[in-house]
Specification:
The chain is elongated, with a radius of gyration of 23 Å. It folds into two domains: 267 residues, Zn peptidases (Aminopeptidase), CATH 3.40.630.10; 175 residues, Alpha-Beta Plaits (2-Layer Sandwich). It has 446 residues and is α+β, with helices and mostly antiparallel strands. The chain is built from ten helices and 24 strands. A hairpin with a 2-residue loop joins strand 4 and strand 5. The chain has a six-stranded mixed beta sheet with strand order 1-2-6-3-7-22. A four-stranded antiparallel beta sheet has the order 17-18-10-19, with helices on one face. Helix 9 packs across helix 10.
């Protein structure tokens, strides 16, 4: 391992340059085409990573653009998996200090969409395995890095991949927090089809359920009185008989909605005063502008994983005036999706339709399992600490497998920029995580 650490240090500049190149691919979900089910740029990024790995001497496999893997062959039949993703959530360039796909370095940090979620950690793992190989390590288990291409939507990439490929015997996903995440809350994404908005009223906000929306725009007839006093982030302008109400917030990951500012909330509160008789607006304003779920009547908690969170992520007005809301809920591990559906139906007016479209029961891997204890020992030794596994509200590829947990990349007390403007990775932390990943992969595959 001493040789591999020296090699890794020598190759760190190459790692950084590779990550910069990977960041320049705009891998927001695009239009599907042959061999590129999630858009051409995502396929191009996958091809680049697999070709690079092949140049390192690894075997590679491309699942027709859905996902791909890199193999460092072992002497035995078992497989250690590392699962991460190349796709990213959308970004609004005007909200960034530096362009989200320019991969610029400033003050020791590399800025760009995907630097932490999840291109940075996966490129770190690729170079960790390369350093082990270059140092002469011969694993007893095949080390397989699996690169997914649609994690941010519904993980359909790995579901397709595992139809033809076997599951790893043991695995981790570098797509969460350190030390080890052995509990992930359940995920419940659903639409609520509401009633029609008042004549001339249109509301639009958000792109993804799992992102706190940073912009909401409503247009209403100018003769409808509104009051925006007390809302510093809201402006109203009138022209040609239409008043445009614009609210700005702060994007964040939906699993931690309090770290962001939801731009939808003040618009709904303002419109509820202007349209006190509209059931759709008032239901949303009174029930879904609370990230704890208490106003909705669905507040839940357990000691193992904490509180339920709620994010009103998307609002769309259909051509006929019908309002559709998209909601992201992360619920404690003591509950399941069936219970959540019953609870939502009970607390949603019967005239509105609840339509689940991406749901996943919680993940729990015992703290005393061999996987968790191995990773915890590596982390505690490398960091010279004595901490315990944690729970999160985020959802990783880990829940797609039986014996997988999330492992990094976010260190305790590190600034959280995932799904936010100015996402970045500290280069010192990048080197540190790569060393941790290298040791963990060595221990799991030796």
């Amino acid at each position: 391992m001493d040789d591999s650490k020296k090699i890794l240090s020598q190759q760190f500049d190459d790692l950084t340059k590779t990550l910069q190149k990977v960041i320049t691919f705009n891998t927001e979900k695009g239009q599907p085409s042959d061999g590129a089910p999630f858009g051409k740029e995502i396929r191009n990024c996958l091809d680049y990573v697999l070709n690079l790995a092949k140049s390192f001497g690894f075997d590679t496999y491309n699942d027709d653009g859905y996902a791909g893997h890199v193999d460092f062959k072992g002497t035995g039949d078992k497989v250690v998996g590392i699962l991460g993703h190349l796709d990213v959530v959308p970004s609004t360039p005007s909200e960034w200090k530096y362009p989200p796909y320019a991969a610029e370095i400033h003050d020791g940090k590399l800025y760009g969409r995907g630097t932490m979620d999840d291109k940075g950690p996966m490129i770190a793992c690729l170079y960790a395995v390369k350093a082990l190989k270059d140092a002469g390590f011969v694993p007893s288990k095949t080390i397989r890095l699996i690169f997914g291409c649609d994690e941010e939507t519904d993980m359909g990439c790995v579901l397709h991949y595992f139809k033809s490929m076997p599951y790893p015997d043991v695995a981790f996903s570098p797509d969460g927090d350190f030390p080890v995440i052995n509990r992930e809350k359940g995920i419940y994404h659903f639409n609520i089809t509401l009633g029609k908005l008042p004549t001339g009223c249109v509301i639009s906000a958000g792109d993804r359920a799992n992102v706190v929306p940073s912009l909401c725009v409503a247009r209403i007839p100018s003769d409808v009185g509104i009051n925006i006093d007390g809302y510093d982030s809201v402006t109203a302008t009138s022209q040609n008989g239409v008043t445009t109400v614009t609210s700005t917030g702060l994007a964040a990951h939906a699993s931690t909605p309090k770290e962001g500012i939801n731009a939808i909330h003040p618009v709904l509160k303002i419109l509820a005063q202007a349209y006190p008789d509209n059931a759709s607006i008032n239901f949303l304003a009174n029930s879904l502008c609370d990230s704890t779920g208490a106003d909705y009547g669905i507040k839940l908690h357990d000691e193992q994983s904490g509180d339920l969170t709620l994010n009103l992520g998307v609002l769309k007005t259909l051509d006929d005036g019908t309002l559709v809301a998209t909601v992201d809920i992360r619920f404690p591990i003591s509950y399941n999706c069936e219970y959540m559906y019953t609870l939502l139906k009970q607390n949603t007016p019967k005239e509105f339709k609840v339509q689940p479209w991406h749901v996943s029961d919680p993940l729990y891997v015992p703290a005393d399992s061999e996987l968790v204890t191995t990773l915890m020992k590596v982390y505690n030794t490398e960091m010279n600490v004595n901490v315990e596994p944690i729970a999160i509200g985020g959802g990783t590829y880990s829940r797609c497998l039986k014996n997988c947990v999330a492992f990094g990349p976010l260190f305790p007390n590190e600034e959280q920029t995932i799904h936010m403007p100015n996402e970045c990775i500290d280069l010192d932390n990048l080197k540190r995580m790569t060393e941790i990943y290298m040791e963990a992969i060595y221990q799991l595959a030796k």
